[in-house]
């Protein structure tokens, strides 16, 4: 079945897998670094939040929804000037990380916000009654209580980023998606395409399993 896998193609396959790991890993970390505080801000300023402010919440929430609702392939092309400004190029692994991060941040923000909503309001009220500041409520009540849900949300985001990274290959973003398109589709090598799909499935399974394990550990602390 895989008779087309020459040593050179196997080396390219290994390189492409590493590029996918880098794209998903770095954009996942960067997206979480932006999305986590953004999600906390959305929750704090929401109705019933510690810093409730309807107008601010609607504006920020609208911006988050606008990015989330933009199809990734369109986002990928639309921000090419910004990608060039940041990385000096619009193709390659480094360039793909920019739109992946921008796509991940609002997605993670909404997942974080949803996790924070599940925290018992009584805990927040008790902390306020004891004179806790907003920062203390966030770091000592909201985030610790919502941590399993946040980790689960980030895991979902990483799985989504894996699919997005493959899509980035359509415009030369590198990784397994690029390999599948260039060899599996354009050169009519179906076994290469099949191998790419199988490896992506295995990669997603590893990410999901690791995330589920971590959620279980955090839930039974």
From TrEMBL:
Under SUPFAM superfamilies, the record lists: MetI-like
Chain ranges passing through the membrane: 20-42, 63-83, 89-109, 150-172, 192-215
Where is the protein localized?
A: Cell membrane
Which Pfam families has this protein been placed in?
Answer: BPD_transp_1 (PF00528)
Q: How does it sit in the membrane?
A: Multi-pass membrane protein
- For this UniProt entry, what is the primary localization, expressed as one broad class? membrane
Which keywords has UniProt assigned to this entry? Cell membrane, Membrane, Transmembrane, Transmembrane helix, Transport
The record's annotation in PANTHER family points to:
ABC TRANSPORTER PERMEASE, D-METHIONINE TRANSPORT SYSTEM PERMEASE PROTEIN METI-RELATED
Membership in a protein family: Belongs to the binding-protein-dependent transport system permease family.
**The protein's name in its UniProt record:** Methionine ABC transporter permease
Classification from the root reads: Bacteria, Pseudomonadati, Pseudomonadota, Betaproteobacteria, Burkholderiales
